[in-house]
Specification:
There is one protein chain. The protein has 85 residues and is an alpha+beta fold. The chain has one domain: OB fold (Dihydrolipoamide Acetyltransferase, E2P), CATH 2.40.50.320. 21% of the residues lie in helices and 46% in strands. A hairpin with a 2-residue loop joins strand 1 and strand 2. It is elongated and about 55 Å long.
Length: 85
């Protein structure tokens, strides 16, 4: 019985993670450039990341170069970007 319960809980956790639209990597940093369909974000360590976005990318707030941002990325694609003032 305990094994069945453990398996059910594990399966539910995996399903929740897989169905979450924001599952993936989270990157915080400064939006240094908007280049066509790519955001260039410099993380606190100084590394620049080039991240693809399109019409499906959710934006929270007005996003412009120089903003501090939080970016959720899955499979190299920006799922959501949020500007922090």
């Amino acid at each position: 019985m305990k094994k069945i319960l453990a398996i059910a809980l594990f399966s539910a956790a995996l399903a929740a993670q897989a169905s979450s639209p924001l599952s993936g990597d989270e990157i915080k940093g400064t939006l240094t450039k908007i280049d066509g369909e790519f955001y260039v974000v410099k993380d606190p360590g100084g590394e620049e990341r080039r991240l693809h976005f399109d019409a499906t990318t959710k934006k929270k707030g007005e996003v412009k170069e120089g903003d501090k941002v939080e970016v959720h990325v899955k499979d190299g694609h920006v799922i959501m970007i949020e500007a922090h003032k």
